[in-house]
Amino acid sequence: MSSTASTIELAALQALQTTEQIQLLDVVDALRAHGLSEFTALPQLIVCGDQSSGKSSVLEAISGVPFPRKDNLCTRFATEVILRRASIAGIAVSL
């Protein structure tokens, strides 16, 4: 991929999220951290479907984080994925 194409893609990705959107997500994160989601609906995406219908694949495509897959074995646990832009790439996992 040429550097021009990379620059165009980066600019397009950065244009997807404005400063106002980042601030709004910060507020939603703070409200969720204080437990307000117990009392009011905060924005979220829920992926549901039949067994082997591709739910883990959807989450993997959105997050870039691989989910376990094996024949006759599915992801049998609730998963919360929080995606935020940052200057440093990182992954935190907790159980």
Radius of gyration: 17 Å
SS element count, helices: 3
End-to-end Cα distance: 38 Å
The chain-level structural class is mainly alpha
Amount of helix: 25-40%
- Strand proportion: under 5%
Q: Could you list the spans in which at least 5 consecutive residues all have pLDDT below 50?
A: none
| Major sheet | none
Kindly state the mean pLDDT as a whole number? 77
**Cα shape:** globular
Strand segment count: 0
**Helix and strand element order:** HHH
Question: What are the SSEs and their pairings?
Answer:
Blueprint lengths: L2 H13 L3 H15 L21 H9 L32
Architecture overview:
With 95 residues, the protein is mainly alpha-helical. Helix content is 39%, strand content 0%. The longest helix has 15 residues. It starts with a helix and ends in a 32-residue tail after the last helix. The relative contact order is 0.09. The mean pLDDT is 77.
Core attributes:
95 residues; 3 helices
In short:
This protein is an all-alpha fold and 95 residues long. The chain is 39% helix and 0% strand. It has helices at residues 3-15, 19-33, 55-63.
